[in-house]
Write a structure and sequence with these properties.
This protein has 150 residues and is α+β, with helices and mostly antiparallel strands. The protein has one domain: Immunoglobulin-like. Helix content is 22%, strand content 41%. The protein contains 2 helices and 9 strands; from the N terminus they run βααββββββββ. The strands form 2 sheets. Strands 1-7-6-9-2 form a 5-stranded antiparallel β-sheet. It starts with 5 loop residues before the first strand and ends with a strand.
Length: 150
């Protein structure tokens, strides 16, 4: 990407927690309702972890409106892939940290990633890709939870 590196630094693997709750099974570890509670706590923890990563950035500006998300597709391993377009509205090249959440058909967060882009040129639509870290099934959408330009 000609000097722009995109790397995923924060990912949330919730499938192990969500799968038992989704099918309503219990392995002696509690009722399905307690498993749903644990899944909810894991999702909240995932979002908090992503937010903590964004909070490490000092002197940044909110840039959520500068990031557009395209239609989610699947890669060869079944992971969700969301194309992003970042348009730097500043006067100089800037770095970005972008939280992307993947949601199932019910609107529940099933994965979250934080992407870092370096040296995004001003007023030039720059492509990036958010990729889930595990196979996601069913209808999946992606949206920008937060974006910081710094």
């Amino acid at each position: 990407m000609s000097g722009r590196r995109t790397r995923t630094i924060c990912a949330v693997g919730l499938m192990a927690v969500l799968a038992p709750a989704a099918v309503g099974c219990s392995d002696g570890g509690g009722a399905p309702s307690s498993q749903v509670s644990r899944a909810s706590a894991a999702i909240a923890s995932a979002r908090a972890s992503a937010q903590a990563e964004l909070n490490k950035i000092k002197g940044g500006s909110q840039a959520r409106r500068e990031v557009k998300v395209g239609r989610v597709s699947r890669d060869g391993a079944g992971r969700a892939v969301a194309p992003l377009t970042v348009t730097n509205r500043a006067e100089h090249p800037a770095n970005y940290a972008i939280e992307v959440t993947f949601r199932n058909a019910s609107g529940d967060v099933v994965d979250a990633v934080v992407l870092h882009l370096s040296k995004v040129p001003p007023n030039h639509p720059t492509p990036a890709t958010a990729r889930s870290h595990r196979k996601l099934t069913g209808r999946t959408t992606a949206n920008v939870g937060a974006a910081v330009r710094y």
